[in-house]
Amino acid sequence: MKHLEKEYCDMLSQVQPRETFEQELLTTLMDMQNEKKKPRTKVRKCIIQRQLYQAAVCGICCISIIFIGMMTPVSAAIRDMYQRFYQNTARNYGKTIAKHEIEINQQMTTKGGSKIYIKDGVLTNKGMSIRYEVKIKEKGMDIYPGDIQLKTKDGSKISMQQTTYMPETGKENNKKYIASFETEQMDELEELLGNKTKGSFGFLEENPRDEIKESSADISFTPESIYQLKTLKLDEDWVKAKKAGNYRISKITMDVWYMKVEYQWQMKEKQKFPAFELSDEKGKEYVSLGAELEENKEGGLEGTIFYELPGKKSKKMIFSPVQLVENENGEQKEEKLSGKSIQVKKEDIKNENELQKNH
Amino acid sequence: MIKVKEYTEEELSRIISSYTKSLVRLAFTYTKSVPDAEDVVQEVMIRLITKKPWFENETHEKAWLVRVTINTSINYIKAVKRRRAEPLSYDIPDTVRREEGFLLEMLDVLPGKYKSVLYLYYYEGYSIKEISRILGKPESTISTWLSRARKKLKVQLEKEGDI
Predict the structure, then answer these.
(1) In this structure, which of A97, A219, A269, B22 has its CB flanked by the most CB atoms within 10 Å?
(2) pLDDT for res A60
(3) B72, B91, B110: which is the final residue of a domain?
(4) Residue B99's pLDDT is what?
(5) Which residues contact B116 (CB under 8 A, 6 or more apart)?
(6) A86 close to A352: Cβ distance less than 8 angstroms
(7) B94 in contact with A at a CB cutoff of 8 Å?
(8) Model confidence over A135-157: pLDDT tens digits?
(9) Using only C-alpha atoms, what is the Rg of chain B?
(10) Pick from B16, B72, B162: which is nearest to A25 by CB?
């Protein structure tokens, strides 16, 4: 691989724009700024044509959806198929997470010399969540969880892709982590129940002074159940605040060991990182374990925050608007933003089975 | 750095000389032709002077240019693929050696997002954390893409025989 990486860099070094390109580009841009006229290039032409094509496809799709929606027998048949599908796949699983925990107890030494202890895991209706601890690692080394590969009784493979990972607590020098994985092979995953299962859990190590290294640990366990994640989709109006902009929470997912909150924000100053501080009705604050923010196609912001799970006795979750500010040392701090908080009842976050019963 | 009303010739000249070569290479990994990569970079620069985004510092400025180059390249290749039935083939510069040309063809099996991560990691020398900031994706996603890109290349190498 090292040879390949060198060849790759050598090859790209030889790809050069024409000698006159930079000067031509500068002239074009200056002319454009002065005359406010965009030059026509092959790329521009292609992209404009593609946008027109996309608009046409969207239009046709919308008309088709409206047309199908109006034909009552067809929409009734689709609704019926959907309901039957969920009735068939409904299963009764245990109520507490502890019941679903699978002991893994596997220690590994990576190629980079780090020591990782894989503690336990839970199979979920999306894939799997695993807890692990990085016991020893070199200073400056970053360790990322990779994918999980499991083998079914008949020898076929189940591949699970890592979707997120985060520290188990917000404490400094945290060594314990949670990683979540998703798979599309849910039928095969259900076949694992009650059977001794073998597989591997990969890690990627990045050391700034060395090449990246990949290692994997052999894992084996006997899963007995699948935990249903609880979700709540919110279709609320935007909360409008003068300075903070408009914001709303779109989805809350209670994962095995953390809570995931997806939100949208419309604000003028895009360089800010708006988020929420979580507390309950007794004023207890919950730690944020990580956050992500992306600009969406409409020019707004879409974010995800991961929190530690609220306490068993808490009934309400209160999300207050804040913005994350990074200081010179790279440490993040929360600054409160003026604006109404969003309140959610914990009992409203339900798994699919509970949602069906209520309907 | 603050948002400017209009770029001066000096300012544009600094941006062009600092980033053009690197952006053309990045675009080339998608467009497979230097003239098309140059067109993509021109389009990116036009977006820069029309949108006039606010940059905190030069790192932020480069991150924006890299992200827009990737998006413009993807839009361009999608548009070209829709119009032509057959996939694009590499217009390899004469200066590129035969075995390197072969490497380029091999890289073609990788999805676009893997190409960007490989380019930014190996050629530009960014760390996973930095790529995560540039592409606006979580570190976990970048590490997964990098790992999968390496695995796919390894499989491809084994199929074709090491170069």
Answers:
(1) A219
(2) 74
(3) B91
(4) 54
(5) B26, B29, B70, B135
(6) yes
(7) no
(8) 998 887 889 998 999 998 888 89
(9) 17
(10) B16
3-state secondary structure of B81: helix
- CATH fold of the domain at A98-221: Immunoglobulin-like (2.60.40)
- Residue A182 to residues A107, A124, A128, A189, B42: CA-CA distances in angstroms? 23, 9, 7, 11, 40
Give the residue among A278, A274, A302 at the shortest CA–CA distance from A289. Answer: A278
| CA–CA distance, A158 with A193 (Å, rounded to integer) | 14
What is the pLDDT confidence band of residue B106, given thresholds at 50, 70 and 90?
A: low
Identity at A188, one-letter amino acid code: E
pLDDT at A92: 33
Residue contacts between A and B (CB atoms, under 8 Å): 169
How many CB atoms neighbour CB A85 within 10 A?
10
CA distance A252 to A179: 18
Bridge partner list, A233: A251
Q: What is the pLDDT of residues B126-139, one digit of tens each?
A: 888 888 888 878 88
Q: Is the pLDDT of residue A91 over 50?
A: no
Closest by alpha carbon to B52, among B39, B63, B61, B41? Answer: B61
Q: How many CB atoms lie within 10 A of CB A182?
A: 14
A156: Cβ contacts below 8 Å, ≥ 6 apart: A188
Q: Are residues B86 and B97 in the same domain?
A: no
**CA-to-CA separations, A71 to A64, A82, A84, A301, in angstroms, rounded:** 11, 17, 20, 37
Judged against a pLDDT cut of 80, whether residue A174 lies above it is answered with yes
Judge whether B163 is closer than 8 Å to chain A, CB to CB.
yes
B145 touches chain A (CB under 8 A): no
What span, in angstroms and rounded, lies between the C-alpha atoms of A76 and A30?
A: 60
Residue in A16, A33, A212 nearest the CB of B21: A16
Give the C-alpha separation, B151 to A12, whole Å.
21
Q: Which of A55-69, A177-191, A324-338, B11-25 has the lowest mean pLDDT?
A: A55-69
Q: Is A284 helix (H, G, I), strand (E, B) or coil?
A: coil
Query: What is the fold of A230-358?
Result: Immunoglobulin-like (2.60.40)
pLDDT of residue A341: 92
> Is pLDDT larger for residue A96 or for residue A193?
A193
Question: How much is the pTM?
Answer: 0.66
Domain total in chain B: 2
Gap between the terminal Cα atoms of chain B = 46
- Domain with residue B122: its CATH number is 1.10.10.10
Q: Which of B62, B91, B120 is the last residue of a domain?
A: B91
CA-derived radius of gyration, chain A: 25
Q: Which residues of A touch B29 (CB under 8 A)?
A: 12
Determine the structural domain holding residue B120 and report its residue range: 93-163
Backbone angles phi, psi at B121, to 5 degrees: -75, -55
Phi-psi sector, A318: left (phi>0), alpha (psi -120 to 50), beta: beta
> Which structure tokens are listed for A208?
């700034």
